[in-house]
Queue: 3 jobs
Job 1
Amino acid sequence: MTEIKIERIPYAGWPNCYRLTNGEVELVTTADVGPRVIRYGFVNGPNLFAEFPDQLGRSGEDSWMMRGGHRLWMAPEIVPETYALDNGPIKATVDGQVITLLQPVEPETSLQKEISLQLAADGSVTVTHRIENAGSKTRHLALWALSQMASGGSGIAIFPPRGCHEECLQPTNPLVMWAYTDFSDQRWRFTKKYLILKQNPADHSPQKAGLFHENTAAAYLLGTDLFVKRAHANPALPHPDFHCSFEIFTNGDFLELETLGPLVDLAPGSSVSHLEHWSLHRDVRLNSYSDDELDRLILPFFDQPRV
């Protein structure tokens, strides 16, 4: 039986980090800042998450820091609330195979953020995001889970099931643009079933798009390592940004795969959660970004039981 090990380690200049591993894959979380998952990759392999070396190992800054890794935000994106500081120490609690990262209440928002991680024997991860309203006023928000991926790869998202004109007279899902979205940009590629966005370190202009899919699934291919994240979205509930359950963003430094929960009116003392499932896969070698090739190599990782 595969043993799951959680140990306290120094990492990237932070003395108080935690490593979760099954011997094949590993995650590293920080406790000196956060909550933040700074690494997910194969043991002795590259980090699939982005890292910004000049921001690693530091804390206590008076402005929000990118740092890299996976984080929890509130949506819709507004300043300053979304960019509330996460530059201070957090409480890390280990309970069996689960580690929970609890941030102090944010002075800017009166919200308290929490990320819990459970690593399974097969290397997959259940990630539970939670926000509690510790203030005195109801807050209108959605949970926003952002995975900041290392440069040089390709983000791949699946559209909801396609149909034919005669049977689908009404629209089935949104494809959302931002004012800076430019679908003529060569980093975008569209097939009938998939949206692909490549990260190009030489191109620093931002690109972003969003969509809704009840069974949200996206991947990032870096070399031959594939990161997959999945989340379930309720189509009956309103979502941010013209009803997006998924958003993808890139610039010259990284690419983000983002899932979003529904918009809620979070009363004082109440909390809301959002679940993601992650997995890593080796030796994924695409010959093309065609539907047939993506169906063959990527779709099996998306077609998991509903979460």
Job 2
Amino acid sequence: MDRLPRWADVALVPLISLLLAAIISALVLLSIGQSPVEAFDVMVDGALGSAYGWGYTLYYTTSFIFTGLSVTFAFHASMFNIGGEGQAQLGGLGVALVALALPWPHWTLALAAATLGAALFGAAWAAIPAYLQARRGSHIVITTIMFNYIAAAFLVYLLVDVLRPAGQMDPASARFPEGAHLPALNDIPGLNLIFTKPVPANVTLFIALAMAVVVWAILWQTRLGYQIRAFGKSEPAARYAGINPTFIIMVAMLMSGALAGMMSVNNVMGEAERLLQNSSEGAGFIGIAVALMGRNHPFGVVLAALLFGFLYQGGAELGLWTSIPIEMRIVVQGLVILFTGALDMMVRMLLARIFALFRSRQPGVA
């Protein structure tokens, strides 16, 4: 198959995939007697038409950046980490334990400690599947799937029997102290002129963006990153070059788990301000689609996370203001995943043929 120009591979293929997903989504809406134009208007207005809508879109975007980066980091070591959901839930446990440990004097101290706790707990939960892959040959996909369910069950046990305050009915931890309250975007000077109403998006957004830069720097600007990418391209060649596979697998998965765990700072500490069941809210699985659509590049992940943040908030608006079922959000997400993942090669092959035909018709090209 002819190679596509770099710009076409990075921008045109995802754009066409999105367009195909939008067309199929419109046909689905028409088939149930709904207006695609009305649905699009409601989604855009609800997610992007006001500062309040942007506050929710950016809140979801923050979580998806972390989990998308998690999948991306492992992917470059040729590992498909689909355990981000469980790693994020254990990261939430780390956040809760840190936040409840002390009467924090200021949110900056609490944020730094909670971020570290989330990263450590997420990395620890990823370390077991990583070890099984590196030393026992257990497939990382199978073990990370299993550990999602183990994490969910473990968290339910802790919330019901250990962390739940006496006299409280719902399975949740105690509320975090006032010193662990993170400022939302509407609390930040300057941004409060834009976000005039309370919104869930908080300072964790800036940590997510910073981590995108950190991941890019590690993978493309360091020797370790070169070793990870070399191992991901060809394990036998990497072994021949003296790269330790056990070291690479462990480092890549620990970093991947840490990134997934850090997601919980956004919703556990920044929004709920206590640990709840299903604190990850499915973001671990959405991170897979975000990484695929972002071409496993940190800056692509940020853009893809923004798209899925729009779909999440826009889908919620559909359920509130129209008779279109909120499940349509899941349909659209599934179509985006289908065309950017499973059918990506179909779009790529079609564009390659078009570019090859165009080049063959240029003067002087045989």
Job 3
Amino acid sequence: MKVCIYGCGAIGSLIAAWLARGGADVSVVARGQHLEAIQSDGLSLASPDGEDTINVSVAAGGNPNDFGEQDVVFLTLKSHMLADIADSIAPLLGAETMVVTACNGIPWWYFYGTHDFGSPELASVDPGRRLWNAIGPERAIGCVVYPAASVVSPGVVRHVFGDRFTIGEPDGHESDRINALAATMRAGDFEIEVALGNKLRTDIWIKLVANAAYNPVSLMTGKALDAMIDDPATKGLLTSIMNEAIAVAKALNIDVPVTPEFLHVATRNLGAHKTSMLQDFEAGRSLELEPIAGAVIELARLQGVATPSLDMIYSLAANKTRDGGKGDN
């Protein structure tokens, strides 16, 4: 299988290395020093304990035109960056190309393959339907990413934990192409679940309920996960946001099968880990606020669900993002 990873950061590098290990023909679209290191020395992936490292040779470049049509394209950029690169994906797309959205938040294809809610445009996710029109929702494959990874140095990534991915067709049916993709990923030692029926959207919402709470609250408090959960007032706010997100999912016919307390217990086990949003803010990078928190609010408005706690933290986080946290505005 010819597979291109568009956005070779930590998770993109992890996926690329595992797929190459399994025998896929892998190319990566990357940039800067990371790209230069991969081109000169290959892509290295260290194990969580740091004792083992694999090095794979992959085709690497900064221009999708370099690689031609692919069987699979993994979009592993931050979800709020996708619309800006929509048109540049075209050289990678053939008639049968699968496009896997391995991103946080509500995916741009969310209402494709459903019949209960029509196909509303979600400005927080895909403004102007740029992704919908450039890629075509019929190419979309859903993906929920559970592992964590970090870039140690240019060309070198550390696998932090996890190997589980959920993939599935937007309409929930079992297809030849999803089984072929699952087999390719399993050959690289991914733990793959093929989601059928409503399972894909359910898994998307389980992760989103947690992200919509922990990410913007961590941005405002500057605290790691354990510190937020251990503080009663902050934990109360997190719980309120989670319950609001669960209500939005319910309005979209998704029963989230976990409680806020379950998520707190599971997340507390990660210890003093900072959310990706807080890490991005501290590094001066742009944030995934819209596809995570903004999208839940937009869906809430479409369904007439009140989200006062999420509205408040989203407004504060958006203001902090605009002024760089310096209180200038």
